[in-house]
Amino acid sequence: MDFLFGHISTTALSLLVALLLDRLFGEPNVLHPLVGFGKWVDWCRSALQLPAQVKPCQQRLNGVLAWGLAVLPFVLVLWWLLAVLPDWLEFILGTIVLYFTVGWQSLRQHGVAIAEPLRHGWLDDAREAVGRIVSRDTSSLSEGEISKAGIESVLENGSDAIFAPIFWFVLLGPVGALGYRLSNTLDAMWGYKTPSLLHFGWCAARIDDVLNYLPARLVVLTYAVCGKREPAMRCARQQGCRWKSPNAGPVMAAGAGALTVKLGGKAQYFGETQERPCLGEGREPTVEDLDKSIWLVDKGVYLWAIVLCFLI
């Protein structure tokens, strides 16, 4: 493929095409591969999860086996296909894999779906929209709390759904992007500290933390460059470590600082009020700040695309 596009590498070209496809078409509404993967994950869990009274070490061991059974077959099959296919088919397959693993347009659509009704004062519709992408209770959120929840989700998922898959694609190719996306999905399904998943989901949660560590730090820099640099870096450095997630904390703190708004604070989860650390600095967020958070992620994607085209 290089001879067709001069100095642009196939990796860079594949990245640009995949981002363009995602921006134009978003995620497919039917036959999305992750739907089938979710059913496979449910089977792996039912086959290997042990009762809660079994020793934690045995539950963790079965969690490791379940993670391997859920993720590795797909990664190995893709690795084999890329090894045997001709270059032009390898390029097409890699581009399709990245397209399916990046959720840029989907994240934008979720953010806009919250902002639009909020702009018109339709709080019930906004609460329903934000409830689709956050795990907290949303039935009684105020306008400011809806904006805050939406911004937090956009900033955090900007790292998980967009920048991290691109990072692993550039580093390890389509196999890296697929492995990351499947691992991240597994963490979203198993990585909870409930009695049934505390030990069984331990492996999925820890692997996701490891895979997100470097991309999250690059996203901190990205949000700082694309927003208010000094408060973004200061908030990430001083506040990020207080958050329950070692990767989401710095990312959200940097994003809040870049937007000069306050995030975190009290939130309802499953009927219980949790006092979360405060992130960012400045004023309480509004719907306009939700719009700005979507644009912040957009600018980050454009920045990564430009920089990577020069570097790879």
From TrEMBL:
- Pathway it belongs to? Cofactor biosynthesis; adenosylcobalamin biosynthesis
Q: Where in the cell is it found?
A: Cell membrane
* Topological relation to the membrane, as annotated: Multi-pass membrane protein
Q: Which residues cross the membrane?
A: 64-82, 162-180
Name the domain of life this protein comes from.
Bacteria
Which UniProt keywords are given for this protein, alphabetically ordered? Cell membrane, Cobalamin biosynthesis, Membrane, Transmembrane, Transmembrane helix
UniProt-listed InterPro entries: Cobalamin_biosynth_CobD/CbiB
Describe its function: Converts cobyric acid to cobinamide by the addition of aminopropanol on the F carboxylic group.
Q: What family does this belong to?
A: Belongs to the CobD/CbiB family.
The name this protein carries in UniProt is: Cobalamin biosynthesis protein CobD
Source organism per UniProt: Rhodanobacter aciditrophus
